[in-house]
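Hey, sorry to bother you again with one of my protein questions. A protein chain has come my way and I'm curious about its shape. It would help a lot if you went through both lines with me. I owe you a coffee for this, so here goes:
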Amino acid sequence: MTSSAPTHRYTVRSHVESTGLTCSPSVARHIDRLARPYLSLEPGPCPPGAWEVVADTEPPASALPETVTAQGEASVRYAVDRTRRTLYHLAPGGEAWVTQSLLRATRAIHRSAASRQGMLFLHAGLVELDGRGVALVGGSRAGKTTFVMASVLHGAGVMVCNDDVSLTAEPQGSGVLGVGWPRSVSVRLDTLDLLFGREAARAALSSLTHPANQTLGSLRESGVEEHGTALIYPWEYADLLDTRIGRSATVDAIVHLSLADDPSETGATDVPPAERAGLLERHVLGLPNKHLNIFGHAPDDATADRTRDALAALPTFRFRYAFEDASREVERLAGHLRARVPAPTRSPEHRLTGRAAPAGPGRHR
């Protein structure tokens, strides 16, 4: 559990919270790279009373065990000391897993704080598509990741998040702000083949650094993931697609996305105002995190309800597309939105904020 490497203290900040981090400088550099542009890391202790996430430190005997087991991944073990508001990483060892474990725990604390403040978590990607902030709503296997990646490669899109966005109504009815989080992108292997070609896709897979990629192949072998899957960190995503990533964006339209079984089913249709709230509610996440919902996340209902009302007032569409035609379908949806959603009058810097790509290993500052 412990190593001989010296540890240092850092503060991690988001738009909702500040937390502490104690780890080696090498792990801190990796976390800084993985967290940008969503979270910032700086040297020095966190504010008094903030939660801290710690590595390479023996927890007190009173700390309680907490285990995270994600499908296809190694189990990650923590110890939680609520009195000291400290979460200790215990296992697995190795720098890659320590980095992943500390980032996951830090993200969970910040997302729990966002939930307490009334931010609504939606099972949706958020992309700036042809100048408009578009929330792509849908469950697992709805085609969100493929469509977002295709839009970026098409030159029309900038990703803010891939799978779960936090949303809040801005003051004075000035719109809804969507904020992304530092999560790896789970992408189907056949999506990589479709967008890049088999040879380039294999090369991309061999360069990925998320430690779970060493074991995710078991999901395909067992039939759980028919097409296979890989996890891509944000900076790897930026490098692979030669793009930049946005921290947040104002939402101009909502699109309920799904894959079509037949070409005749493709296309966009309007969602009537009376159906929008109910359709959206199916994809609101009850918990802010897949794991580690142990920090208190009971929401401010009044704020969350204002966000629901603001979202239901936005132009809303259903869009079905053929997987194999993803790149062409991006322009089809963009054209539909151009015709139905007024162009934003906000300046570019107010449409998409924090537009920055996490630097790859060779470019890290």
Observations:
- The CA atoms of residues 269 and 305 lie 26 Å apart.
- The first strand starts at residue 8 and ends at 13.
- The radius of gyration is 20 Å.
